[in-house]
Write a structure and sequence with these properties.
The protein is mainly α. Helices cover about 75% and strands about 0% of the residues. The chain has a two-stranded antiparallel sheet with strand order 1-2.
Length: about 450
């Protein structure tokens, strides 16, 4: 990485809309934006006693001080509802199989259902959030989450349970897209990456804690009670969102909602070579993370003989690697541009993945040479994943909802394909997991090299 005294410019892109962007200037603007006149999440224009014009309406002021902390906590809680809904019921899968007289594959399809709902739902919600604003899709998504959770809790068959999970995914998709778009409405460049790093703390902890929480709930109630508590969490969140979050997309910045306009927006986004590179990097690094989540239990317990308690400890230590990367990111952003950190992160990830593959294939180093590169791989994910959406959404602030939708859909589609690939390659060694993780991490590094060009001006 270059010295912090140099000036960074993006290399020109073929797309005239996004050519020769200067993210350093964007970062500076984001950090030097005027402070909000009152301690609110979004500046209240009515309280300024000034005429509301297009110029004033189109520039929502980023929260500062206590309002910044409240924004982090509220949006972090909203983002956490996704992984909590996905993972909290995992300890209940055996009891669901028995109670509904279903096959294991049919029960596992309920997990596929929510991922499908979250992936496809984001593509639908993104343009809607750009057309009618952020609050209404957010509230509607939370309402759907609550209704679907109650429906799921009382589902009499595995088929209806799967339908409920798809509906939960659709509701959670709205929450995920709107939360990301609101961050882009208020922050740019390094400021956005810093905010997303704070949110990554929540996103990193939620999947780790959710199965433990689900196991504790099952001690007191059945799997149906798990879904009722998830519905209760939705009630709390919709109340908080309605009271604490203001609209962040002014009317004059909204886009027309029509099939032609939506397709035109998606076409514009997909023509931006750098944007496509960023969503591919994000999806591939998510696939690396999903491959670890899907394969680590089998590899560490069945191949290397760890007990359940030992596996829990190893999983926690590796999760600490993810959290270390995400929380170190705001510190590094004071000296380096987000684009530099993405390229550094994917380089670390690719190197660690190749070491993991060599260790798994040869047996050299035993368990130690598996756990160490896994830690650095998750560290690379934690460092990369806050910066890719910050860079991608900064390029297309005029369509932040649609851009966030493409980003989220890519993460779930590419990431969700990782775990089945491991199972398809067999289960007699750690090599399949290592191959998938090495393949996705190396591809992410190659995409970053091809699309994230930086030229240094001294």
């Amino acid at each position: 990485m270059t010295a912090p005294t140099t000036t960074l410019h993006d290399a020109p892109d073929a797309d005239p809309i996004t050519a020769d962007r200067d993210l350093t200037n964007l970062d500076t603007q984001a950090h030097t934006a005027p402070a909000a006149p009152t301690d609110t999440l979004v500046a209240d224009k009515a309280s300024t006693r000034e005429p509301v014009t297009a110029a004033t309406v189109s520039a929502p002021v980023a929260p500062t001080g206590g309002a910044y902390l409240r924004f982090v906590l509220v949006v972090g809680a909203l983002i956490a509802i996704g992984p909590l809904t996905i993972d909290t019921y995992l300890p209940a899968l055996p009891s669901i199989t028995r109670d509904l007289a279903a096959s294991e594959s049919a029960v596992q399809a309920t997990l596929t259902g929510i991922l499908l709902g979250m992936g496809l739902g984001q593509l639908l919600v993104g343009p809607l959030a750009d057309a009618i604003g952020r609050r209404r899709p957010l509230i509607a998504g939370l309402a759907l989450h609550i209704a679907a959770s109650v429906f799921t809790a009382f589902a009499p068959t595995i088929e209806l349970l799967t339908v409920g999970r798809v509906l939960q995914g659709l509701g959670n998709a709205a929450v995920a897209v709107v939360s990301m778009a609101m961050v882009r409405d208020l922050f740019q460049g390094s400021a956005a990456a810093t905010m997303l790093s704070r949110l990554m703390l929540v996103m990193g902890l939620a999947p780790v804690l959710a199965p433990t929480l689900g196991g504790a709930i099952l001690q007191a109630t059945s799997w149906r009670g798990v879904f009722l508590l998830i519905a209760g969490a939705g009630v709390v969140l919709v109340t908080i969102a309605a009271l604490a979050l203001r609209e962040t997309l002014p009317v004059d910045r909204r886009r027309q909602l029509s099939v032609r306009e939506v397709l035109s927006t998606y076409r514009t986004l997909l023509r931006d070579r750098t944007f496509v590179g960023l969503i591919l990097i994000s999806g591939l690094m998510f696939a690396t993370l999903f491959a670890y989540i899907g394969g680590s239990s089998f590899v560490l317990q069945d191949i290397y003989g760890l007990s359940v308690a030992q596996f829990g400890l190893a999983f926690g230590l590796n999760s600490l690697g993810f959290l270390t990367g995400s929380q170190l990111n705001p510190v590094l952003l004071k000296r380096f541009a987000p684009r530099q950190l993405v390229r550094f992160g994917v380089t670390v990830g690719a190197t660690a993945a190749l070491v993991l593959l060599a260790a798994a294939a040869t047996g050299i180093g035993g368990l130690t040479l598996v756990l160490v590169p896994l830690w650095f791989l998750l560290f690379a994910c934690g460092l990369t994943l806050p910066n890719t959406p910050a860079l991608a959404l900064t390029r297309h602030g005029e369509a932040a909802g649609t851009a966030a939708a493409l980003l989220g859909a890519a993460q779930f589609v590419i990431g969700g394909a990782a775990a089945p690939l491991i199972g398809a390659m067999g289960s007699d060694s750690a090599v399949p997991m290592a191959i998938v993780m090495a393949g996705t991490a190396v591809l992410a590094a190659l995409v970053a090299t091809a699309t994230l060009r930086v030229r240094v001006v001294r």
